[in-house]
Structure formats: structure tokens, C-alpha cells
Amino acid sequence: MSRVKEGNRRLTCDIPEGLHKELRFLAVEHDTSITKYVKAILEDHVKKIKKEK
Asked: Which has the closest alpha carbon to 11: 50, 41, 49?
């Protein structure tokens, strides 16, 4: 059984320790998880790129 919800895909990538630390602090500052914080950043970026086209 997969841990990924139906309709979702898992994204795995290696990032530098320093970036992970910064993301962790930013997530805490925004009272959210790293996953939710990164997802929001990616969604905003994709919207921005689509808007520029």
C-alpha cells in the first residue's frame, strides 16, 4: 500500500543541509510543516511562470 494519496505524486530531492535548515526555520515561523511550506512555494512559482507566458 502506498503512502501517497490518490491523485498525488511524491517528489524526492537532495538539498544542501543549510537550505534544509533555512526551510525548517521558515516553516516554523509560518506555523506550518516543511512539506506544506515547500508545496506553497512551488505552487506560487508555477503560477508566476504561467502568468509570465
From this structure: 41
Q: What is the pLDDT of residues 31-53, one digit of tens each?
A: 999 999 999 999 999 999 999 98
For 34, the 3-state DSSP assignment is helix
User: Phi/psi at 2 (nearest 5 deg)?
Assistant: -85, 145
The grid coordinates listed for 32 are 506550518
* Dist. CA 28–CA 23, nearest whole Å: 9
Residue 51's CB is within 10 A of a number of other CB atoms, namely: 7
Give pTM, 2 decimals.
0.79
Nearest-Å Rg of the Cα atoms of the chain is 13
State the residue for C-alpha cell 516543511: 34
The distance of Cα 1 from the centroid of its chain, to the nearest Å, equals: 24
